[in-house]
Write a structure and sequence with these properties.
single chain, alpha+beta, tt1808, chain A, 6-stranded mixed β-sheet, 3-stranded antiparallel β-sheet, 23% helix, globular
């Protein structure tokens, strides 16, 4: 996600947030509800968009049967969080989502440049929502942060993988992904 520009300091519930969405309170604005706070998101820069495209392509190639890669779509995680992760692998029966958003995902990936602090804060919502595999493609440092084993809103395991290393999603232990494939480089930074 892009950098949170503004937020309301008044907490709200998912139910109240959904009523505001239906009433058109956020028309023309990109927002998400995380831990009771509505965040308004800034537009994406080209590095973020390039990271999103790369990671989407990689995940679509390894997506388990019966699942799809959602791009910046809402997840109903709990009573006060409806984040819109950059990428999420969810069940692919779209008819299941007519009455509500997906409530779980096999993998959630955030692409982080100016949004790094906000994306790390979202880890609590993902852990509380039972997301077993949460990754941050940290474009600032050129690393992949991997969060696993959620317990009471905290991930017990955090790994930092660098270029040249590989990762297997929990949902696809038979597949190995190069960290380099998830992280774009500006031409001036290429080796």
């Amino acid at each position: 996600m892009a950098l949170p520009e503004t937020r309301t300091d008044r907490r709200t519930t998912r139910e109240a947030y959904e009523r505001m969405v239906e009433a058109g309170a956020f028309v023309g604005r990109r927002v998400e509800l995380v831990r009771g706070i509505v965040y308004e998101m800034a537009p994406q820069d080209s590095l973020h968009a390039a990271g999103l495209r790369r990671a989407r392509w990689v995940l679509e190639e390894i997506c388990p049967e019966g699942h799809q890669v959602d791009i910046q779509m809402p997840l109903d995680l709990d009573l006060d969080s409806v984040p819109e992760p950059d990428l999420a692998i969810v069940r692919s029966d779209v008819l299941d989502y007519v009455e509500g958003h997906p409530t779980s995902a096999l993998l959630v990936v955030e692409i982080a440049d100016s949004s790094l602090q906000h994306d790390r804060q979202k880890a609590e919502a993902y852990a509380l929502g039972g997301i077993e595999d949460f990754w941050i493609a940290n474009l600032v440092r050129g690393v992949l942060e991997v969060y696993r084993e959620p317990v009471n809103g905290v991930y017990r395991t955090r790994m930092v993988l660098r270029r040249g290393e590989r990762i297997s999603p929990l949902a696809r232990p038979d597949v190995s992904i190069a960290v380099d494939d998830l992280l774009p480089q500006r031409p001036s930074a290429a080796v």
